[in-house]
Amino acid sequence: MHVREADALLTPMINVKHLSKNYGATRAVAGISFEVKQGEKFILLGTSGCGKTTTLKMLNRLIEPSAGEISIQARKITAQQPEMLRRSIGYILQGNSLFPHYTVAENIAVVPRLLGWSRDRTDARVKELLEKLHLPREYANYYPAQLSGGQQQRVNIARGLAADPPIILMDEPFGALDPVTRTHIRKELVQLDEYEKKTIVMVTHDIDEAFEIGDRICLMDKGRIQQQGTAAELLFKPASDFVRSFFSGHYLQAALKTVKLRDIWYGFDAEPGPVIMTSDYSIWDAMEKMGDKNAIYVADKNNGKVKRIGKDSLLRLFSEYTATLQ
Ligand SMILES: Nc1ncnc2c1ncn2[C@@H]1O[C@H](COP(=O)(O)OP(=O)(O)OP(=O)(O)O)[C@@H](O)[C@H]1O
Ligand SMILES: [Mg+2]
User: Fold this and answer.
1) Interatomic CA distance for residues 223 and 219, integer angstroms
2) What would the pLDDT profile of 154-173 be if each residue is shown by its tens digit?
3) Does 186 sit in the ligand 1 pocket, CB within 6 Å?
4) Interior/surface letters 97-123, b for 16+ CB within 10 angstroms, e for the rest
5) Could you tell me if 319 and 243 lie in one domain?
């Protein structure tokens, strides 16, 4: 690999150092530091008022910090014009953030227009995004008020993706939706071909969402980071009682989603059969697929080896495994 390419991979996409924001006596953000790697999905999780939105808005200079430093792609963001910076960072907000007097197509085209894209290129992109987000083509000419909340949220996501920015910031992007629609749209987003390579920072207070989307989770409280790490690290190696109690009511479900079949792969017998998933899926996924069957067949993605995953041994191995982690 060329040295410069290697550097690019090692340099974090986003680097936040000792960041603070005070509002009078309120320390909304109190000296936090974190890095987000290229392509990583980083979650800011925490209860209301812990400083998530303030942190997110400092990343694209909608809010200026009281202290600390942020670099994006190794450049300090204070050295960049806020307007230019924002064009390279998609921003997806919760709820009613579409422009009410713009059509769906015009809403999606906002950033491409600012970037001076041609009419044809913009139209083609709008059409492509409507398709990818399962919105009928004729919706292009509708106004936001003519759409349901879920459809508006899809347009919102399309708008954030429109100019194909390498970084996307999302603030409770599914917050205003009912749980079923919420899960649907979340799955759609994750399955988009463009999603994989994006560096994403997402704010949520929803533990399921954090675990499903996040490569790493940053749990905040009162403006400070309580712990950052993978879901498994937060769940099984909580750094404090705060972290432990934050996940306590959710422990089992979160653990089922966090532990992968490959973690307990050793305990199953090799046996050929109709494979329906790979071993990088979670225990939860396996249970969902199993339904009322007694077993499913799973392949190891690395060597193609197939094993039979029986319902009873699945749960027994899972509880043995989690017991060793605590
Ligand atoms: N413009 C402001 N002026 C004064 N205080 C503010 C301002 N914006 C935020 N705060 C305070 O800073 C703290 C953090 O707010 P922030 O919006 O970042 O929280 P949050 O984690 O996003 O919460 P939520 O989950 O409710 O959206 C809160 O105590 C809030 O009241
Ligand atoms: Mg907020």
Assistant:
1) 10
2) 999 999 999 999 999 999 98
3) no
4) bbeeeebbbbbbbebbeeeebeeeebe
5) no
Q: Tokens at residue 280, please? A: 């990088």
Q: Which domain holds residue 142?
A: 35-53+82-255
The string of pLDDT tens digits covering residues 80-98 is 999 888 888 999 987 678 9
Q: Is ligand 1 within 6 A of the CB of residue 324?
A: no
Judge whether 63 lies within some domain: no
Rg over CA atoms, the chain: 22
pTM assigned to the model: 0.86
Number of independent structural domains in the chain: 2
Q: How far is the CA of 76 from the centre of ligand 2 (A)?
A: 24
Please give the Cα distance from 79 to 71 (Å, whole number). Answer: 9
Task: Identify the CATH number of the domain in which residue 278 sits.
Answer: 3.90.1280
Nearest bound ligand to the CA of residue 220: 1
Q: Which of 51, 47, 46 is nearest to 32 (CA)?
A: 51
Closest residue CA from atom 7 of ligand 1 = 23
Nearest residue (by CA) to ligand 1, atom 4, is 23
Do 113 and 171 belong together in one domain? yes
Distance between Cα 80 and ligand 1 center (Å): 25
The predicted pLDDT at position 2 comes to: 52
Is position 174 within any domain?
A: yes
Residue to probe by mutation, ligand 1, list 22, 29, 32, 53, most atoms within 8 Å of CB? 53
CA-CA-CA-CA torsion for 45, 51, 57, 60, nearest 10 degrees?
A: -70
Which residue minimizes the CA distance to atom 30 of ligand 1? 49
